[in-house]
Amino acid sequence: MNKILVVVYSYTGTSRKVAQLLCSQQGWPMAEIAETRPRAGALGGFRCLLDSVFRRHPQIRYDGPRTKDFDAVVLVSPIWGQRLAGPMRSFVGTRRHHLPDVAVVSVMGGSGAPHAVAEISRLIGRAPILDTAFTTREVDDGSFATRLQAFGTAVRNAEGAQSAVRPAVLSPQAL
């Protein structure tokens, strides 16, 4: 059985709702990223935009399990200003060498998910195994649930397929 961890950062609670449903559907554990300097009011929203525009790495706190103890990590994050949310950028940047296979779920007002996936790819030096995106509207009205379950199943199957490959089979010395 594959060990898959869901790591979420959520400013408004929408991404957390997605992560919680994914964990409920798949039976996976969830860990959460928190900021050391909370965002509040209009100034907090403005900081979100600045973090995205300047690709800043705000200070975060992560008390979850070690990501390297899992076969895959699903990152669930909002999109700010068509880019990856700053706290998730901080998480990926500081743990890039300890991340196993990565899948990405983006939650956005309208667009920007491809930019976030590309940024994660640059940070970890490889492409995520799978990615998907949901709009805030889809999350609010619940219409995302079926697609989220299909995504979770695809992540599980992708990990299952990879674990079936044996290095000796690919070795020319094994022939």
List the helices and strands and how they pair.
Layout: E1 4-8, H1 14-26, E2 30-35, H2 41-53, E3 60-62, E4 72-80, E5 83-84, H3 86-95, E6 101-108, H4 113-124, E7 130-135, H5 136-141, H6 145-163, H7 167-170
Parallel strand pairs: 1-2, 1-4, 4-6, 6-7
Antiparallel strand pairs: 2-3, 4-5
Keywords:
single chain; 175 residues; alpha/beta; Rossmann fold; seven-stranded mixed β-sheet; globular; Flavoprotein-like_sf
Description of the molecule:
This protein is an alpha/beta fold and 175 residues long. The protein has one domain (4-38, 61-163): 3-Layer(aba) Sandwich (Rossmann fold). It has helices at 14-26, 41-53, 86-95, 113-124, 136-141, 145-163, 167-170, and strands at residues 4-8, 30-35, 60-62, 72-80, 83-84, 101-108, 130-135. Strands 1, 2, 3, 4, 5, 6 and 7 form a 7-stranded mixed beta sheet that branches. Strand 6 (101-108), helix 4 (113-124) and strand 7 (130-135) form a beta-alpha-beta unit. The model is unreliable at 163-175 (pLDDT under 50).
